[in-house]
Input
Amino acid sequence: MTATPGATPTIVLVGHGMVGQRFLEALAERGLTATHRVVVLCEEPRPAYDRVALTSYFSGKTPEDLSLTDMEFIREHGIELYVGDPAEKVDREAREVTARSGLVVGYDVLVLATGSYPFVPPVPGKDAEGCFVYRTIEDLLAIEEYARSRATTGAVVGGGLLGLEAAGALKGLGLTSHIVEFAPRLMPVQVDEGGGAALLRTIEDMGLAVHTGVGTQEIVVGEDGAVTGMKLSDGSELAADLVVFSAGVRPRDQLARDCGLTVGERGGITVDEQCRTVADPHVFAIGECALAADGRVYGLVAPGYEQAETAAATIAEDEKSFTGADLSTKLKLLGVDVASFGDAHGTTEDCLDVVYSDSRAGLYKKLVIGRDGTLLGGILVGDAEAYGTLRAFTGSVPPVSPESLVLPAGAGAPVQLGPSALPDEAVICSCHNVTKGTIRGAVTEHSCTTVPEVKKCTKAGTGCGSCVKVLGQLVTAELEASGVEVDKGLCGCFGRTREELYEIVLALRITSYRTLLDRYGREGARGGDGCEVCKPAVGSIIASLAPTIGAEGYVLDGEQAALQDTNDHFLANLQKNGSYSIVPRIPGGEITPEKLIVIGEVARDFGLYTKITGGQRIDLFGARVEQLPLIWARLVDAGFESGHAYGKSLRTVKSCVGQTWCRYGVQDSVRMAIDLELRYRGLRSPHKLKSAVSGCARECAEAQSKDFGVIATSNGWNLYVGGNGGATPRHADLLAQDLSDAELVRLIDRFLMFYIRTADRLERTSTWLERIPGGLDHVREVVVEDSLGICEELESLMTAHVANYRDEWAETINDPEKLSRFVSFVNAPDTPDPVVGFVPERDQIKPDLPLLTIGTRPLEGSAQR
Amino acid sequence: MTLAPETTRPATALTLQLLLEEEDWFTVCELSLLTPGRGVAALLPDGRQAALFTDRAGRTYAIDNRDPFTGAAVLSRGLTGTHQGRPFVASPLLKQRFDLESGQCLDDEDVRVATYEVRAA
Ligand code: SRM
Ligand SMILES: Cc1cc2nc3c(=O)[nH]c(=O)nc-3n(C[C@H](O)[C@H](O)[C@H](O)COP(=O)(O)OP(=O)(O)OC[C@H]3O[C@@H](n4cnc5c(N)ncnc54)[C@H](O)[C@@H]3O)c2cc1C
Ligand code: SF4
Ligand code: FES
Output
């Protein structure tokens, strides 16, 4: 590119959307940020975010979660980013851009990535209060606010991909929702008539009202200027107090038109195969605002990314071109899969269709096959399981017959076509254009051994996420093929995973660790004493299945005693000086004054340090091992029970004060928290479990940071799962909405038992959800839709747990044999351990640490064998 | 709870004894007080503490009870196991493992705890 001699050449990017951000990354990857000044004019009040995932805002993602912009990246590459300052004028003569703030920037290269705007049909009343579009985070915030404060019925104009997403979101906000589509079917662009019928049935079954083949003629406006309904082309009227227009998008090419660049007949800035505008070699256009060399405007992110790469390559004087792209899409709306890929409508000459359809089950699958057997494209509705593989096979002759690819399992010959049959050039991740060969290379050359590593290395799977499943299969296949022993074993003693051991224990009703080790342990470990990893893990499996397999429920009985970690062994938490802490259960954080007084008296009488915990209860520290039964005798007597602060089991169910007192509360969150805590107390699990219940969307109980969190709605409860605090916090995902009390409990029963069954040792629900194939969607299929047919079993396992729960401390203090372990010394049971000492601090005690330092070095010599 | 068949519980009351100095066997407790896979702490006449263990084969071990990494007298409360055929205990505080026969720390070659000769009589 030409530049003023001596000065650093400047690249100006107008529009910081998804494609703009990708362009910046491509510049950085090619080293152009080092050689150029890069200025970005961003119209929206926030830098680039994931527009594709916009709707996930309604299932709990925050605007921050959606962000695509790492400010560290912007700083590191010296990019000048002007947020909230759109370009207003381009002077191509002077090569200058003027922004709204008055900022004028000269450029050597100008890149337009201004995206699209939602098309609003010119019907009367379209600007009334209560009419919205669905494009930006700001749009969503406005819709949410309006829906919460003054709407009960919503209507979406447009039944395409975005319209369906918007309608799903309105339903999620608690509105009765209508979809009005001018075409005779839903998603007319992606699916054909048969697919539309299957989709219609499923969408209606979800309680959304669909009106196809009718147009919107007028928005009816009430006296206060707000929407009250709409008139349709068939003469009918639809009452609605919120309208979302989703009738397609148009390229934002005004800036380009104003400065005389060539635009297409139906809009879009005309560019060549290098994404350079045909009118001016200094100007590029990429993303949804560009009319590509093949005469199309692409409304998907994957082609936009490729254009971004192409523009960056061209600026770097590398060779790359964009000649067109695949329009494959996969959508998951309220659990319905819809996918189309390749030549979905069968426009290729002489092609044939293979169709499987079951409208009762809402299934429709069509493959378009060429004369020579080449897979050209297809449509999948209701089950898009095969999407990733089929899309990758598009353009080649699949190794098995097309019929077998669409027939459901059980009907005829179901064929699971593994990704191993794909050629290396097959594109696995179309968002980032990553081929199977690249993914294999990540494993073989860059020694990635897990899906997260491969994602990081290749970017595959980090866009829409639809390829992650195939990605996982490829990584495993590749590892196995390259002879890498993928040892998924629990530890040095067991070559099996925790999940496999769970299944063995359950199926064979094995109640003894030794039996399991001797029969299912690794060769060399059989007959041995196991290790500190598998003993507690197996102990936990046996404990969580105890009533069902006929094992003793009490965790310290018989052999179980030898398996437990020291905390479980003493039913208390070991502290740094060898003393213990005591945490009585305070369900839901609710406690009577009498019980508070007992805690106070016990702490005073035994000289314990007291602290309010982060879990809404009280911890008593500094008990000697021989004092534990004495302290607990007092607590049990006053009605307390173990809080399992020591166990990999349910900790607390925090609550907010809720409807009873709080002016905003819409349900009784305290009662629900207590019910849940009492139901799941004592349940042994792969890691600790935490929960919380909030009485309204203000979320004072922080339910979205819990393994299972519950938030009240005016219609019931929303259940969130997989949240985590700690070192790697994770926001919980919405699993189901507006549940009744009974539905909520049933769903949590299933969720917890499914987690306990399939998680790895010490894997919180958050990491488990991230790891398991299919993630949240898979869990929802299993626990909500019962896709594996195991829900009844999961529920009965939980029922058995609830029925057999007994308080461990009450059992312990009433059994002299169990009490015998609570001694300081086997030969001097009442002599306190001399290194457990305390010194005063802030009117309480703390461990006497200098006492511990005596003898911290190993003793040498004496009496060795 | 089914215990594995080969678990042997001594029929007669044997006592556990530690060798403190030459020919000086110190009686700690009855062997039957020990659970295979778990330990107990014993207070020695000079104020030191020992951690005593037994494994599933009925072998007994004794090492110093003090965890050299933290100073707390807690090794008797750790979990035992077998590593490459040798018995060990993992400290309940920071989980370092110690060979029950040599006292050698398996996670830090510079650290070793004292061991005692032990017998059941
Ligand atoms: C006492 C308490 C701190 C306090 O004074 O408030 C506490 C104390 C301990 N926490 Fe915690 N955590 C306490 C609330 C929390 C919270 C807040 C909450 O629950 O709302 C969190 C973040 C939420 C979460 O877990 O997602 C929390 C995240 C952790 C973690 C990190 C877990 C993770 O998944 O990253 C650990 C480490 C672990 O479990 O592996 C941990 C481990 C521990 C241990 C068990 C460390 C240890 O092994 O000794 C501490 C034991 C204390 C004891 O001996 O009693 N603690 N800990 C809180 C007890 C709550 C209760 O009533 O049971
Ligand atoms: C709800 C929803 C769901 C979607 N789902 C999918 C999907 O599943 N798969 C898929 O492939 N695609 C999907 N899309 C489409 C996808 O989001 C777009 O293809 C993609 O965002 C296009 O990127 P872009 O950078 O070209 O445009 P945008 O992301 O729209 O970015 C353009 C930016 O330019 C800014 N701008 C405009 N004019 C100016 C100016 N004069 N000065 C400064 N800034 C300006 C705009 O404010 C905007 O921020 C979805 C879109 C929506 C709205
Ligand atoms: S979450 Fe809602 S109901 Fe609960 S205390 Fe906060 S504002 Fe009140
Ligand atoms: S195809 Fe979208 S992330 Fe891979």
Observations:
- The CA atoms of residues 15 and 30 of chain B lie 4 Å apart.
- Residues 38-115 of chain B form a domain with the Rieske Iron-sulfur Protein fold (CATH 2.102.10.10).
